[in-house]
Amino acid sequence: MKLGSEPVNWNNADARYGARVRYVHIKDLDGGVLKQSCVGQWSFERAQKNYIFAPLGEGIARVPDIVETLKHSGYDGWLVIEQDTMPLEPTVVVAQNRM
Questions:
Q1: Which 8-state DSSP code applies to residue 54?
Q2: Which of 29, 12, 4 is nearest to 73 (CA)?
Q3: pLDDT in tens, 56-86
Q4: In the chain, where are the structural domains located?
Q5: What is the pLDDT at residue 34?
Q6: Model confidence over 3-20: pLDDT tens digits?
Q7: Which long-range contacts (C-beta less than 8 Å, at least 24 apart) are formed by 28-31?
Q8: pTM to 2 decimals?
Q9: How far apart are CA 78 and CA 72, in angstroms?
């Protein structure tokens, strides 16, 4: 999770920021590709072409934990879970990740 540009520990974010959150947009990232992109100072386009976005639930975003925490906190705002570009067939991945 990021608030602005700083990563936030999701376990603490709900307690600290939960009442102020009005919109959540989640994408999952491949941690290895993220590290390479940071070290190499890749452009967003290059990172995308190297499939920085992981299939939902397989990256570093802890998507299921975030969704569960939102449910238990009573969150009633917008929630967008986006499957971005990846080397796998998107319709198959979306079907596997249906909540």
A1: P
A2: 12
A3: 888 888 888 888 888 888 888 899 988 888 7
A4: 2-96
A5: 92
A6: 444 455 655 666 666 677
A7: 28/53, 28/54, 28/55, 28/56, 28/57, 28/58, 28/59, 28/60, 28/61, 28/63, 28/83, 29/53, 29/54, 29/59, 29/60, 29/61, 30/54, 30/59, 30/60, 31/59, 31/60
A8: 0.67
A9: 15
